[in-house]
Every structure is written in structure tokens, then in C-alpha cells.
Amino acid sequence: MRNVTAVARVGLVVLAALAWSPAAPASDFEIVAKHIGSGPLPTLNPNDPKWKSAAEAELWLLPQNMIAPSLIQLTIPWLKVRALCNDTDIAFRLEWPDPTQDYVLDIGGFSDGVAIEFPIGPADPSPFMGHPSQDGQPAGRVHIVHWKATWQVDMDKGFQGVDQIYPNAWWDIYPFLNGAFPFLTEQSLTARETLNYSPGAYVGNPVSLTKRKTPVEELIAEGFGTLTTQPRQDAWGVGLWRAGKWTVILARPKVSKDAMDSVLPMQGESKRAFAVWNGSDQDRGARKHYFPWTSLKIGP
Amino acid sequence: MPKVHNWQINREMDYPYEESRPKKQVAYVFDTNKCIECQTCSIACKTTWTSGKGQEYMFWNNVETKPYGFYPLGWDVKILEKLGAQEWAGGTYAGKTVFESAAPGERVLGYQPGEEDYASPNVGEDDVSEVVQKGAFFQGIHKTWMFYLARICNHCTYPACLASCPRKAIYKREEDGVVLIDQTRCRGYRECVKACPYKKVFFNLMTRVSEKCIACYPLLERGKQPRCVETCIGRIRLQGWLSRAGEEKRDNPIDYLVRIRKVAIPLYPQYGLEPNVYYVPPIHVPREFLLQMFGPAVDAAVDTYRKAKDDKELLAALLLFGSSDQTMTSFKRDGDAVLGYNAKGEQVVRVPFKEPVYIRPYFDEKNNVYRHNIT
Fold first, then answer.
1. Of A23, A63, A132, A299, which has fewest CB within 10 angstroms of its CB?
2. Does A199 lie at the interface with B, CB-CB under 8 angstroms?
């Protein structure tokens, strides 16, 4: 998606400035989470008809250029958001155009992704990872729920490692791996000693896990560069790419037992921000599309 | 952006963090004139650190044939082209470093290599600069040239990898200057892969985070030299500790070779990273090529090296290479021999300038066999 014109980008900046200004009406970008009673949310099916009952907000995205490394060229123009909730949980259906499904993490490959950010506590942290602002706003904590295309494919088709990226590659032997070529990950990486040559996994980096329960990661941040995986994971979700569009559901409890999670009101107003990554454009980390704090009304 | 002093380009320069030098700096001298590209160093490194699944294309240590060898493909010429003209005014660099050339929204001028760039680790091996013309071989010294360039992480004083990491997951150890990636903090953004102009940070396909040379720090901490140094059969390498400018010690072999005799010089100092692998430049290579690669200090380095055979103190320091697995922090010439000492002041080696020759009988009566090699 490289067809966003310069004129449109200027318009986006104006729109975002309005959205970020406390005096501006938030209604254009307001998200209303429709309460559907005490029954389960359709958190694993983006095409469930219940989603159509929720109002859709269309958010015009901005390139993150507050801090380096930044995104210069916008490749994803918009993100459509619907939200549903029941007595305990809230779920967001996120949809955006992307002609390529990017999940292969080879040397130059990056993953598509989407994230929702929630402020933690009564303070009013900056939407930029809770980073202290130049006008004196102190650092605040934010709670982030992040879905990654690579993790989704890990879940759907098995871990996307060397076997999948280079299925025809030959390798004589790996130290400590069991079996023989092609040394499939799930069958051969069974001995503890294999971790000796897998330092990220050895130290338990959550990014390096070869077995996952969810494509969603819950994180906490308190300023640029502080993003950290939460020890306790409460969020879940699913992503589906079809006909040039990603549709992702991110779900979480309104209130969890985790002190690192934001608390959402059972009913009333809150806020959140969004970020989207386009892997084929080498988006990662701070190189992302974003939409700053927008109002979320949790309906009765 | 803070200003820091870079002695290799003889000026202040921009760097994202304040100047903070370690208590001691790990440093190496590689003598390119002695390298035969046997790749023993590459294999020693690979078997020690990067034999795992997901590390297949990683070569923390590699040896490439210049001018046409690269790993990854075109690593230096690509960044040289991006950097533009690199003028020196005497011993001072007048161009821009990779930090000063960063585009808006970037921390460092760099590029992200593609997977095809890593497809041929030994591309250009033994290729010479041009075709040897018919008959040239019989007409004396011909003009074609090549040399072997052994490369590891430079454990730079101003690492571009560290500067580029938005998570501060890369750090430089205060105790020895070794640059490491925190494997618990890295999230595989590969900003460091993009930023390092020497392209010595690699992405692990299985762990999905980046890795790099760790200077064999478990050996350093025990007073031993890294694997690539210890195993070098050409004895081209020496590892030690480089003192800060103004604190040089004449009996420290690294200080002596780098700062006092200036026979070993940094690779692409104009990038601005203050790299800490110092090369004795290949003396037979056209000077224009060496100036681009090593800067204006190359003239004096070549002249000094050419005279080494008559310079007993310099010869003494050069003969320490490959003589011990221990890190030698001081040396002393003793007549026509050199003595090397470890950090405890214990003598580690005594290397004669000229090795004695022993000739053994062709036939070994004790074992009832003929010897293949009698000297």
C-alpha cells in the first residue's frame, strides 16, 4: 500500500492533531464497545455476525516520526475498529488493508502486526509508550496487547523456523539435535543442550519460544525503549488474512488479576491507542503506523 | 546530540551517547601480510559459538579475499557509496561519519542486507584484481594483487549497533569494552544489523533475535585469548588491552603496535566507530585502495612494517603473535628473543627471533618407520 498521496498525509496529520487535542471532539474516532450480555464474545471468528452489530470506527493512521527510528512512508492508510464486550471481557475487531501477508522472519523479513495500547492507572500517560513529554508530562505506564502475523502462522502451521523458510536446505549435523536431516524443529530440538547454541531461548526470551499458546503478547511500557513482556499473559486473539486485508481480533478481560494490566470500567468511558506494522515495508518496533488516544465507550 | 572525541579521525564527532570509555578496551592486531585464508579461525569460532539451528549463515569470524570478497555481499562498498566523498585533511577526517550522515528518522546511516547477500560466504575467494595478462608472469612482478582480510566484530568504542538499538539492548562492558547483545532484551528488530557498517551482527532464524561476536569473553575473563586468535595457524593475530590515549605503555604489545609504532591501524576509520581491531596493512596493495580502507595512517604503517626485519623491538612485538593462548599484557626484548608476560607478571613465552633448526634422522629406529618430515 504505497498509494497514499502527500495531500492525504497532510490531511491525516491535521486529523490526528484534532484527535489529540483535548478540546477537539472525539466523536469521529470514538469507539463504542457494544455489550452483548453475559454470553461469550466471538473472539476466534472475525466473520461472526455479532461483529456487524457493533459500530465501526475508521481511524486514519499516521507514520510514527516522533522518535528515531521512525516511519517515513505511510503504507497502511486506515484501521477499522469494532468492539464488543460482555460482563467480563472486551474484544476488538481490527481490519486494515495489506496486499501482502508478511510473516516470514528470514534475514530481511519482518512480520505484519497490530497492537492496542491502554493507559494504566489514573494518570494520563502519553500515547507514545507512556514516554515523558517535553512539556513536563511525567512518564506513565501503558499496557499493550500485540498480535503478530508470525506468531499466528506459528499457531496455525507450526513454528516458522529454518525448516519452513528453507525447506530444501541441507545441513550435515547440528550439535545435540536428535535424529537426522531435515532435523525438524519439533522432533529434533528436544535435548536441553540444544539451547547452548540458541541463546535467546536459553535465557527464556519470549520472542524465542518455539511453542506458543496464543498469537497475542501482553506487554508493559514506561517510555521509549522500555517495552517488556508481562510475566502473566491474559489476552488472546486471532488473525486472518484474506483478499488483501488483515482482520484481527484482540480480546482481554476488562479486569484481570494482573497488576500490570490496565483496568477497564464495566461501563463508561476510557481510551486507547493503536499501532499497525507492515512487514513488507520493514516496519518493526518504532517503525510503525499509529493512531493516538481515542475515546472508548463501554456500552451497557 | 553529544559530541565525543574519536582519536582515529582526530576530531570531535556526533554520537547519540556521551563519551564513556571502559576501564580497559579489548583490542586485536591482525597482520594481513601473514594471513593465508585457511579459515581455521572461522571454523574455530563457528564450532564454538554458532553451530546451532538458525545460525547457519552466521560467521562472527570470516576471512574474505579483497578486493572482490565480501560477507555479506558488498558490505563495505555499499556503505562507502552511501557515505559519499570521504576526504581527509592531513590526519583529520573532513567527511561525515555514519552517525553524522544519518537521514531524518534514522540514528545511523546504514542498510538492511537481504538474504541473498548472505548466500555466498566465500564469494570472490582468491580472485585477483584483474586478469593476469598473457606472458606477464614471465616478465617480472605483475600488477595484479589481492589479499586476505580476516574480520570479526570490532568491539568499537562508539558502536553503531549500540547507537541504533531503540531498546538499549546492546551494551559495552565497562570492565573490558566487549560489546554484547542482551539476549533477554533483544526483540529482533535488526536495527543493529542495518546500522553496523561492518555487518557483524546477525539475525538468528530460530530465536528471532540478533547475535554477534562476544570476544570469547569467558576466555578473556580467565586471561586467555579468544578462539580465533588462539587457533590461528598463520600466527597473524594478537589480542590484548588497548590503553586510553595518553596512557600508553611501551611494554604493552597492543599499545606499542597501535599507538606508539602505529604499524597497526583501524579498518575504515572514516565510519566513525573507533573500531578496535587493528590491521597491519598489506604492503603490496596499491596505495589508493589502502587509503580508502585504512585512512592516511597507512603510509607510515607500511613504511614501518617494511623495516621491521631491522627493527628488533618491533620484531619482538610481532613475534608474540600466536606464541601463547594467554593474553600477554607486557613484553620485553631479551637479546634476539622476546619474552611475553601475562597480567600477573608471569613469563608466558620466550620466542627466539630465529627458531633453531633440528634435523632428525630419516629413519626412526625406535618406531621402525621412515619420517616424512625431518626438520
1. A23
2. yes
